Amino acid sequence: MMKPKIAFAPVMFTAVMLFFYLPLAVLIVFSFNQSKTMLWSGFSLTWYRELFFNSRTLWGAFSNSCIVAFTSALLSTVIGTLGAIGIIWYDFKGRKVLQTAGLLPLVMPEIVMGVSLLIFFSGIRLKLSLFTIFLAHTTFDIPFVLLIVLTRLEEFDFSIIEASHDLGARELQTLTRVIIPVAMPGILSAFLMAVTLSLEDFVITFFVAGPGASTLPLYVYSMLRFGVSPVINALSVIMIGGTAVLALSTRRFFKYIARQ
Amino acid sequence: MRGSSIRIENIGKQFGTCTALDNVSFTINNGEFFSLLGPSGCGKTTLLRIIAGFESPSNGALFIDDVNALSIPPNRRATNTIFQNYALFPHLSVYENVAFSQRLKKVPKSELDRKVNEFLDLVKLVSEKDRFPAQLSGGQKQRVAIARALINQPKILLLDEPLSALDAKLRQRMLIELDAIHDKVGITFIYVTHDQQEALSVSDRVAVLDGGVIRQIGTPVEIYEHPADAFVANFIGETNYITGTVRQVLDADHILVEVEHLGAISAKTKNDVAVGSSVSITLRPERIDISAEVPRQQSGHVNVLKGNVDEIIYSGFQSRYFVKCGGMIIKAHRQHATNNRAEETPIRWNENAYICWRADDGYIVEAVRQ
Amino acid sequence: MKRNPGPVYAAPLALWLTTLFAVPLVIILLYSFMVKGTYGGVVARFSLDGYRALFNPTFVAAALSTLLIATVSSVCMVLLALPAAYHMARSRHKNVYLLLVIIPFWTNFLIRIYAWIAILGNNGFLNMFLVHIGILADPVQFLYNRNAVILVTVYTYLPYAILPLYSSIEKFDGSLLEAARDLGAGVVQSTFRVLLPSIRGGIVTAILFTFIPVFGAYAIPQILGGSDSLMLGTVIARELTVTRNWPLAASVSMLLTVVTTTGVVMLARYNRSATPDDGKSAKEGSGT
To answer: Which CATH superfamily hosts domain B6-235?
Structure first.
């Protein structure tokens, strides 16, 4: 180990850690502040009460987020998984193009995707709504699903598919009895990734959402425009806590996925 | 016999510019244990996969029991395959692996249970039925694959180098078990291997392939004793492959052949060969007698050569001698148990030795008329 | 296989991508070559106005400011990430540290932005505190300028720099540094001549992984930016919804896409030259 680096590197690392966590700490602390300003005046849970009992729109946005996340993740997982199976094991015209196109949205700037979908929906006269959000989310989820499932399938032993046919199974039976069960860990992690991305998304959702179709990030954004409010602090704390709880409780689940 | 017959007519297969199979044709009879033998890349696995239905040939026809099989997809052909890496379903237990095909056919529960146990019993794996493939040894996985295939009662069982992943002793045991299963079940087995020992020990007939072409088809004895060409002679067992020119016709069955760097030797012919034409003889090392003293006179056409012992490789039950005669090295094998003549002078390295063999023990493989 | 099921499997993917990805992008491409409609939208006539507008001073200023912000942010992030990642990779607690870096990542993007509004805003913690203890008479506007954008961008995207550098440094053989010291090199020398060249791949990845997303950023400049920190992303949004100059919005989108794609291609090419290509084979025929 380099001697001076011992002084410099850990210092920088600590600085970075402080940089990451201090703003979040401020957020958390002031969510318990009695007054509405960023001056500490005493401990209180008023803002949490406000959050839970006075914010019907918030809970509406939250349930929208969940609905869209779940449905778009489901559809994108189905489309992406089937597509990955076709791409990795079979040759057909345009296969490489499809693979590239499938992964392209990963590198496209979100604003371009959002704007292009907005213009597209207006062009086909589809009113912006929760449904358009669903369509958009499915679209940007697909490349992640494709990537994850393709990686998984690379380690998949193709000869068991031949064995399945050899033993009399038709293609659909092979898919349901062999391919999907064996690839399930990859499929599940792709699904979870899609749910996470969908819940998180702001930019694309912003452009394709209709009036009244709010998701949690959009709701947060609308509150941000009004400046500082401890209710947002409280919401932030809940969201951070919720993520942490979710992450830790699914840790065992992820171990199962990783082991397969 | 309960197996199916297979007729292969002019089957060829190209992968891009590479020709894996070059218009092969032959027939396999019902119930035969038939081996496809050859070095890697010779096309034997490709041929097997075409019979199974996983590949389609570029040209040619395939008939199973005189019915055109090429239009039948693999899940409906009466063949079942044992894969080289077993291809067991990792998410299913041994029981469920074997039951897989029966569940597809919606066989009722009690009958399914009976059948699965019957075949698990055949391969002696009843006690492992709830375990998963990851927990099994190579030999056990092999047996699950066999049970899984046979429960379908296929007319043809295709085996793709099934023993290559096992160690030598286990391989021996499994080979004997496979042979026993074949005898018991009676269907046609098509066995792909690069190991000629395996092929010779259990097959009814063997097809030797090289470079996508069939070199010879015959019983193990035929292949060994009467190889059709230089490739087969050298691929099967060990041999001394001697090429020379016919110098003289000795009698109705024997000729004198002049071999460069070796001298004149007598050989037995089956057809007429003209003086001056080129012949190749395959001479198995175990047919050659070797001694430190001059061998006593024998009647008939016998070749005796004197040479210098270049190398001795001792293997316990036999020794292999490499004797330099003239400019050529002749291999001679000698088993110690039967030939142990204690009073005889021992054969030593770098000393003189005499090799002798009967002309009738050599086999003329190619005779090219000039 | 007699029938090739590949196309059947791939059909839903192909269909969806065509309708909801390819077609919208093509529409944008087409719109960039059309004429602005009076009340927004386009008139279907060919024109290069959309691209000519890219040379307007205001737009050029926005493009330059985007370039500046992306470059400065990227450089800052790599400079911060290098020592941090070095420490992480060489530590016994590397897994814990990794988790610590990733956790803020999991919190919602907007909340991380809001955290800085809560600190730097006119009613934020910093202002309130400084006024309260008398250093300031009135709140100072710390936000809504370029520095704020850079700060929050670095805050948000820093993990994108740390992770590839961590990965690179982890694979680096530390004994090389000892060998350099043994041969007489000083700390600075061994860092620059041994460590940095060896983790070159990680550095390039970190630079591109940060530059490319920041270049196309929208939310941060929109929320925290000012007149000196217009970025291409905000320009697109403004042209789309405010000025309703759709051809211009489209042409800027095309520009953004081209820059981003170029960056990605550069990264892919760089990676491919560094590691051998392992070909994947599609199952419709293989040897023996």
So the answer is: P-loop containing nucleotide triphosphate hydrolases (3.40.50.300)
- Give the model's pLDDT for residue C278: 36
pLDDT of A167 strictly over 90:
yes
Using a CB-CB cut-off of 8 Å, the residues of chain C touching B53 are 2
Helix (H) or strand (E) holding A154: helix A130-154
B10-48 pLDDT per residue, tens? 999 999 888 999 999 999 999 999 999 999 888 899 999
Domain limits of chain B? 6-235, 240-368
Q: What is the 3-state secondary structure (H, E, C) of C80-108?
A: HHHHHHHHHHCCCCHHHHHHHHHHHHHCC
Residue A247 touches chain C, beta carbons under 8 Å: yes
Report CB contact under 8 Å: B55, C285. yes
Is C104's CB within 8 Å of A21's CB? yes
Is the minimum CB–CB distance between A175 and chain B shorter than 8 Å? no
Nearest-CA distance from B3 to chain C in Å? 24
Interface predicted TM-score of the whole assembly (ipTM), two decimals: 0.86
Nearest residue, CB atoms, C287 vs list B41, B53, B56: B41
pLDDT > 90 fraction of chain B, expressed in percent and rounded: 63
Among candidates A166, A177, A182 on the partner chain, residue whose Cβ is nearest the Cβ of B81: A166
Whether C115 and C220 have beta carbons less than 8 Å apart is answered as no
Whether residue A120 and residue C257 make contact (CB cut-off 8 A), yes or no, is no
Domains of chain C: 48-273 (1.10.3720.10)
**Is B76 in the C-facing interface, judged by CB distances under 8 Å?**
no
Q: Is A259 exposed, middle or buried (0-12, 13-18, 19+ CB in 10 A)?
A: exposed
Fold (topology level) of B240-368: OB fold (Dihydrolipoamide Acetyltransferase, E2P) (2.40.50)
**pTM of the entire predicted model:** 0.83
Task: List, for residues A115-160, the tens digit of each pLDDT value.
Answer: 999 999 988 999 898 999 999 999 999 999 999 999 999 989 999 9
